[in-house]
Structure formats: structure tokens, C-alpha cells
Amino acid sequence: MPQSHYRICPLCEACCGLEVRSEGKQVLSIRGAEQDVFSRGFICPKGVSLKDLHEDPDRLRAPLIKRDGVFVEASWDEAFAEIERRLLPLIAAHGGDAVATVFGNPSAHKISLLSYIPRLVKAIGTRNIFSASTLDQMPKQLSAGLMFGHWLSIPVPDIERCDYLLMLGANPMVSNGSLWTVPDYRGKSKAMRERGGRIVVIDPRRTETAAQADEHLAIRPGGDVFLLLGLVHTLFDEGLVRLGRLAEWTNGVEAVQQAVAAYPPERTAAGCGIDAATQRRLARELAAAPRACVYGRLGTCTQRFGSLNSWLVDVLNVLTGHLDAAGGAMFPKAAAFAANTLGKPGSGKGVATGRRASRVSGAPEVFGELPITCLAEEIETADGPDGVQVRALIAIAANPVLSAPNGPRLARALEGLDFMLSLDIYLNETSRHADVILPGLSPLEDLHFDMAFPQFSFRNHARFSGPVFERPAGTPEEWETILRLAALVEGRGRHVDIAALDDAAIAADVQKFAGEQAGAVLAALGEQRGPERLIDLALRSGPYGDRFGLKPEGLSLTKIKAADGGIDLGPLQPRIPEMLRTPTGRIELAPPLLLGDLPQVAAALDAPPVEGMLLIGRRDMRSGNSWMHNLPVLAKGPERCTLLVHPADAARLGLSDGGRARLATTTGAGLVRVELSETLMPGVVSLPHGWGHDLPGARLRQAAERPGLNMNALLDDGARDPLSGNAVLSGVAVQIAPA
Ligand SMILES: Nc1nc2c(c(=O)[nH]1)N[C@H]1C(S)=C(S)[C@@H](COP(=O)(O)OP(=O)(O)OC[C@H]3O[C@@H](n4cnc5c(=O)[nH]c(N)nc54)[C@H](O)[C@@H]3O)O[C@H]1N2
Ligand SMILES: Nc1nc2c(c(=O)[nH]1)N[C@H]1C(S)=C(S)[C@@H](COP(=O)(O)OP(=O)(O)OC[C@H]3O[C@@H](n4cnc5c(=O)[nH]c(N)nc54)[C@H](O)[C@@H]3O)O[C@H]1N2
Ligand code: SF4
Ligand SMILES: [Mo]
């Protein structure tokens, strides 16, 4: 008998609800779940690929141990025994800092990982914590943290009520949104334009998003800081500053005015390639629109001035009165786990960064993390007065050999480790360096609840989905694996009672939150375990929760499970001052750390332009960073790892459509197929990341058929935004010749 299951897609930030039809152990079909209160039936080709992922013969189903250079399948107990034998002596001899941890993108989509990883890190006692955040959104987290008091308090466009959307460095038509959970961006943007709204896209390439917007302006890669300063300057210069309701809650307006005084659009035009008159017009349009929003994403973060860009985007929103206003940039109120719904409303501890520096480069820590581009040097550099060398690595759902700049250097460094453990579902470019690989589950065998993305959602909601299939007998859930590793590191051995450990941990959490009521709360959580118990606790004690009976109409996990397609919690509502967690209880518009970087902007503006072509990245609909090229439904069709070149540049460089080009930077070189495209700004070429599946030792048979070029083999791991530690992934000078 075919069965129908509701399942939230874990593959990107849109978090679509899917309907999976199955019979026995077979997936019959996957489509968008019409009953989903949030995504309303939307699906993209990646959602469909969950079937291929579930069935992929290359997906790991048993632990692997490397013996004499060859991976052999092992039982879970053998794998933990090997970890115990190899890892514990290293920690005993050199301390926790000798073990680095690196977390990849999927860990943000899996509660099993996200909520248990901190316990492992604590058990190891390491400060060498790295993640994909410093390849992605760390600049935005930093600016939001400094301005609003918590690093996940990031405002999102209220697209359903917006009249004017100014978008920089984002391509949601393909990416389906980031730090903005917005399934069916296409439909929503179309509806916005049909209402008379206007969308302006700033991007070096006329992207899919730009093509269906009202206006596209090509910007010089890396030039956003100049444009944004020009816009803020214009607001002051032309008397367009209107904070409205926020005036009462904002510090630092004058400091910002002074800081931008030196950046009239007439001066910044050369740096961004957008003329002064256009900059002034954009500022006026933004100020004049009743309901407007500026949104900047990945392309604005992966630059030298990523933190300043991220800050200036919200400065524009505040100064035009569009922050925290309907149709503007608003703060979602998540049903569970959001720090800006916890503690005393209206103020808090704020954020601290730079409390220590990385050992080799002295890069400041940001929210407890070090830049992932510092990982290789920490492995390569021997013990010194500033600390110990990294001798072991635990990689969880991460593929930095392909995802991080200078992947080849990192790969060599990994070979020098004394021990490496990967928690991964593939033997791929990174996990091939491991000594032990512990597999996760197929997404269809796992439950799903988003901890992070409801904090960035275009509309408030609460949804949960259970596993579609039972997991194979003997295979632990990933949170169990992580708890067992933590126990092992703590010296409790590998045969601990995971359920008892989990009980003890939740009892401690509940004690903190409920004090005298802890016993009653624990009783109410009943027989639940693992992530489900965490979710129930967070929901019931959260802003819409039933408060364990005090508000019987409130939410609980049971209630959400019973609601097919989730529970809608309505459009976004103004939340200032309640959501602020700054010590002053006000928006800090002029954080000193950020203002301190402005002199470097002036220097960059006066520097001579870079010679040669500039390389930028791009995403493809049928791709998900580095790890989905092994799925037939996504891999089929035209070659996707191509270098887009403007025909005029191609003619000058002697390149032809379909021909091959040799790309070279100061870091690396490689060959790639050329695809002519008038969408590119002349002088700029575009290459997707996540390719390069021709490295020996990986087991990705489908992906290896069309490996593509690893863009990150060309990028310099020394190039960072010094404030956030984020890698520079865009606007890199590259030499191009026909091959
Ligand atoms: N040049 C360039 N580089 C970039 C970017 C760019 O735009 N340009 N983008 C950057 C961005 S935004 C990001 S987020 C990073 C991503 O960087 P990473 O997070 O390192 O890379 P992913 O490709 O997402 O790899 C995810 C890994 O998780 C594994 N995995 C998938 N599902 C599971 C699971 O359920 N459990 C476990 N244990 N493992 C799983 C996969 O097999 C894979 O090894 O890449 C960055 N790199
Ligand atoms: N199909 C698909 N979807 C994905 C992913 C995927 O790999 N494939 N990855 C997911 C992940 S991890 C993330 S973080 C999100 C990212 O999602 P988005 O933030 O939407 O990022 P991109 O799609 O990479 O779009 C970034 C844009 O910035 C532009 N850009 C490059 N340099 C500059 C610059 O200097 N200035 C400006 N203004 N623009 C610039 C690029 O041309 C590109 O159009 O996507 C997610 N969704
Ligand atoms: S848009 Fe993202 S969440 Fe939705 S189906 Fe596609 S991959 Fe899954
Ligand atoms: Mo990302």
C-alpha cells in the first residue's frame, strides 16, 4: 500500500515541506506538500533528489576505518574503539586544543548535529573551532550582533508587504534564499511586482534574479562598500534621514553621519562602477518608498569589506525608517531556540568578539570561532609559546577541501594529522583523509525540525516532520554518535548509556530554566528523548508555548505533530525594543569595531584598480555546494562547471564558446570549459564552487564522471575580512588564456 509522508527538506534554507510517497522501502515520488502552511507546495529539483540521495549506492551506511591506507567497513563498536585508541592519547599528551573541529553547512540544517555539537566541543575542551560560517555569513552575524545584541538577530525582507526591494549579492531565484527563508521567491517577487512593487538588483552578473527584477545594476566586484557608503552619505546630504519610531531606540546616528561624510557618491562611483546620479537616485527611491527594504547576502559577505557591507545594509534600513516596519526589514519571532526571545526582553549582554586570537596568524575569534582559512596553518605549524599544534581533526558534515580557499594546501595539511575523524555520509574529497568515518542517516530516516531558519523566515511558523523510513538496525542517530564521542573523550569509555547521559543533560538544562518547577517540567516532557525532547522543551517554554499548562492554547511538539503541514504563526510583527539584546537596550548604529575599518575603505578607494580579469562565483539550481553532484537527477543535463565569459572579453582573450581556458591565480591554476554569456559585466568571469571531483580516494562515482574544476584551488586562503574572519571568495584577480 503506498503511503504518504510529510517531510521538511533539509537541503537548503527555504525549508520546503515535501510530500514523500513510499511503498515498503521504496520512494515512489516526491513533490511539494500542498498542506504546508509555510511553503505551500513549492519544491525545487533538489527536493526531488532526496530519492536519489536515499538510494545512492555510494552513500555510506557503515563506519569505515582506514587500515594500511585502505578504508574497510567496520562495526560501530570497532570504529569507536579505534577512535578511543587513537584520539585519547593525543588529548592526554597535548590537551584539547590539539584537536580541531570543523562543522559544515548541513550541520545548520540538522537538529541532531546543531544541538549536540556544543557538547562534543565542550568535552574536548578545544578552542580550535572552525566552520563554514567563515566562508559565508559571519560578517552579517558580526554586524547584527554588534547592532542588535545577538548574532542571529538578522532582519529579513517582509516581501509580502514590501514595495521596494534593493538586493545586493544575492540570487534567490537559484539559491532559494539565504539568511532569508523564503520558499518560492519567484512567486513572491512576481506578486510583489504585480502589486506595483519594484525590485532593484546589484550584482556583477545579470543573474536569474536580476533578469526578472525591474532594474539590474552591474557593480564592480568588491565595490559594494563604496556604493553603500555613497547611499548613506546621500541620505544625510539630501536630508532624507527619517528614523521614525526607531529614533527613540537608536544610538550613534551622528557618528554615522560623520563617518560617511568623506564618501559622497561623486567619490565612490569610481570604486563601485555605479555613477553618482544613479547612487543618488537609489537613495531617494529607498527613502521615498513607504515600505522598502535593503537586503544583502553572500556576494556582499565574501569580500574584504564584508562586515562593513553587512552593517551598511542595515544602516540604510534604519535611517530610512524601514527597519522593523511592515514591508521592510523585520525580525522574525521563532517558536523555539531563538536567543532574541529568551531572557529579559529589551536588553542583554550584547556580543563579544576578539577575546583571543588564532595562534599562527593572530586572527581574532568571532563568536568562539576562528576563520576556517586558518585551519591549514594551525595544522602545519609546530607547537610554540602561543599554544599547541593541531594534531587531530573532527570534521562534521564538512568538505573544506572543496569548499574552502586553497583546498589543495588544506588537503596536504590533513595528510599530516596524527588522527582525523569524519562524520559524513560520503567518502569524499575531505573524508578520504580521515582515519575513521562515521556515517549519518539518509534524510528520509531522520526527523526534522529547523532550529536556525525560523529565525530568518519571511513569515512565522512552527513545523516538524518525523522520519519517513525506519533507520537500519544498529545505526545510531547522529546525536547519539556525538554524545558517545563526547563521553569517550571525557574518559567514560565507549559503552556508556546514551539515554542516561541525555537524561542528565536535559535535567541540567531544565533546572536552569525552571528552577523549583524542574521536576514538574521533566515529568511533562515524559518519555521523549534526544532532539524531540529538546524541541518540546524549547517550544513549550518559547514565545508561543503552552508554558507547561499555564497557557493551554499554546504550542507543544504534540500540537505541531498533530497539525498536518505545520502551524502558521502569522506575518512578521514589529519587535523593537523587545528583541534587542544590546547592553544599552538600543540599536547601536555606529559600533566602534566597524567604524575602525573605514580608513581602510578610503585607502582601497584611492588604490589603483586591479589589473586583469576578476573572478566571481555562482550557484546552480541543480547543485548544493560541493556534495550533491553524485545524484543522477541533478547531475544530468548540460555541463554546469563552466567559466562564464562576456563575448567581448572572450574575443580579446582568444576564447571561444565550448572551448577550454586555463585559469591561473597566485594560488593555483586549472582548466575549465568556457561558456559565453552577455550576462557578465565585462572584465568579470564567473565560476561555480564545489567542483573538482577528480581527487583520488573519494567514492563518488557519478560525480567523478564530470568532475569540474575546484574554484577554491584558485583562491588565496590568506584573503579575509579581518573583522569577521570571513574568506574572500569573490573579485579575485585571475589570468585567463585559451588552453
Ligand atoms: N569559492 C566559493 N567557495 C564557497 C562558496 C562560494 O560561494 N564560493 N560558498 C561557501 C558556502 S556559503 C558554504 S555554506 C560552504 C559549504 O562548505 P561545507 O559545509 O564544507 O561544504 P558542503 O559542500 O556543504 O559539504 C557538506 C558535507 O556534509 C556532508 N553531509 C551531507 N549531509 C550530511 C548529513 O546528514 N550528515 C553528515 N554527517 N554529513 C552530511 C556531505 O557529504 C559533505 O561532505 O562552501 C563555501 N565555499
Ligand atoms: N541551488 C543552490 N542553492 C543553494 C546553494 C547551492 O549551492 N545551490 N547553496 C546554499 C548556500 S550554502 C548559501 S550560503 C546560499 C547563498 O545564496 P545567495 O546569498 O543568494 O548567494 P548566491 O546565489 O551565491 O548569489 C551571490 C551573488 O553575489 C554576486 N556577487 C559576486 N560578487 C559580488 C560583489 O562583489 N558584489 C555584489 N553585489 N554581488 C556579487 C554573484 O554574482 C551572485 O549572483 O545558497 C544556498 N542555496
Ligand atoms: S528550495 Fe531548498 S528546501 Fe525547497 S525543495 Fe529545494 S532544496 Fe529543498
Ligand atoms: Mo552557505
TrEMBL record:
<dbReference type="InterPro" id="IPR050123">
    <property type="entry name" value="Prok_molybdopt-oxidoreductase"/>
</dbReference>
<protein>
    <submittedName>
        <fullName>Molybdopterin-dependent oxidoreductase</fullName>
    </submittedName>
</protein>
<keyword id="KW-0560">Oxidoreductase</keyword>
<dbReference type="Pfam" id="PF00384">
    <property type="entry name" value="Molybdopterin"/>
</dbReference>
<keyword id="KW-0408">Iron</keyword>
<keyword id="KW-0479">Metal-binding</keyword>
<dbReference type="InterPro" id="IPR009010">
    <property type="entry name" value="Asp_de-COase-like_dom_sf"/>
</dbReference>
<dbReference type="InterPro" id="IPR006656">
    <property type="entry name" value="Mopterin_OxRdtase"/>
</dbReference>
<dbReference type="InterPro" id="IPR006657">
    <property type="entry name" value="MoPterin_dinucl-bd_dom"/>
</dbReference>
<keyword id="KW-0411">Iron-sulfur</keyword>
<dbReference type="Pfam" id="PF01568">
    <property type="entry name" value="Molydop_binding"/>
</dbReference>
<feature type="domain" description="4Fe-4S Mo/W bis-MGD-type">
    <location>
        <begin position="2"/>
        <end position="58"/>
    </location>
</feature>
<dbReference type="Pfam" id="PF04879">
    <property type="entry name" value="Molybdop_Fe4S4"/>
</dbReference>
<keyword id="KW-0004">4Fe-4S</keyword>
<dbReference type="InterPro" id="IPR006963">
    <property type="entry name" value="Mopterin_OxRdtase_4Fe-4S_dom"/>
</dbReference>
